[in-house]
Specification:
The protein has 262 residues and is of the alpha/beta class. It folds into two domains: 197 residues, 2-enoyl-CoA Hydratase, Chain A, domain 1; 47 residues. The protein has ten helices and ten strands. Strands 1-2-3-5-7-10 form a six-stranded mixed beta sheet, sandwiched between helices. Strands 4-6-8-9 form a four-stranded mixed beta sheet. Helix 3 packs across helix 4, helix 4 packs antiparallel against helix 5 and helix 8 packs antiparallel against helix 9.
Length: 262
């Protein structure tokens, strides 16, 4: 599949999605959102794709959020800024039920919608020059693509409020310290590190990984007992799977398991 504003590659059960507007710091406009909709829905629905890595082209920015220049041009001309065909920001920030892991490889600035994309991912690796934040209040906006909600759930509340109410960006190592980032590496090691995370995940049963992510998200805001009840269906799916048989057999035979995700 070929796109103008996104690069989409598949190899060894890993999809790499690259935001491809480096001249605009990978800021997103309507056309980019529409391409991302196709890409993410293809990843979600392809049984051979088990993990995705999301990154940005170039070394300046992961994603600078909404393309405010295009926004200003279209609103000044009285044009339809989004319209009904505009999907949620980057597609993955809302109404995207995907139990497959997504890794963010943050290669520079992740601001506004860029950080909201990061927050929608499961694991985050950042280059040491990356900066992350939600500066929307500084331009008369608010983080409406999940940033205000997810940030306060993923890092300590007071730290999140400090970032949200000032709009300040934090450096990569500070983002790691507060738990926003899993790992910080030199820029030239970013993609190899993200692929290492992906490879370690693909060595696990893809079905087990999917069920684990489902269980975590289902149980975030319910009691432990209710979470156990929600696991009943997942347990049945696991017990009926090829992977459930293959894992112990491969261990007993001292060989690498041949996962199918089914």
């Amino acid at each position: 599949m070929s796109y103008e504003f996104v690069r989409y590659e598949k190899r060894d059960h890993v999809a790499v999605v690259t935001l491809n507007r480096p001249d605009r710091m990978n800021a997103l406009h309507l056309e980019a959102h529409l391409e991302l909709k196709e890409v993410w829905e293809d990843f979600r629905d392809d049984p051979e794709m088990w993990v995705a890595i999301l990154t940005g082209a170039g070394d300046r920015a992961f994603c600078a959020g909404n393309d405010l220049k295009v926004t200003a041009e279209r609103t000044a001309e009285g044009g339809d800024l989004q319209g009904e065909k505009r999907p949620p920001f980057g597609r993955i920030t809302r109404d995207f039920d995907c139990p497959k892991p997504i890794i963010a490889a943050v290669n520079g600035v992740a601001a506004g919608g860029g950080l909201e994309l990061v927050l929608a991912c499961d694991i985050v690796v950042a280059a040491d020059h990356a900066r992350l934040g939600l500066p929307e209040p500084k331009v008369g906006l608010f983080a409406g693509a999940g940033g205000a909600h997810r940030l306060a759930r993923q890092i300590p509340f007071k730290v999140a409020m400090g970032m949200l109410l000032t709009g300040d960006l934090v450096e990569a190592h500070e983002a790691h310290r507060i738990g926003l980032v899993n790992e910080v590496v030199p820029a030239d090691e970013l993609m190899s590190t993200a692929r290492s995370w992906a490879d370690r995940i693909t060595r696990c049963s893809p079905l087990s990984v999917k069920l684990t992510k489902e269980a975590v998200f289902d149980a975030q805001f319910v009691s432990i007992d209710e979470a156990f009840r929600k696991d009943d269906d997942r347990r049945e799916r696991l017990l009926a799977s090829h992977d459930f048989v293959e894992g112990p057999r491969a261990f007993a035979e001292k060989r690498a398991p041949q996962w199918t995700g089914r």
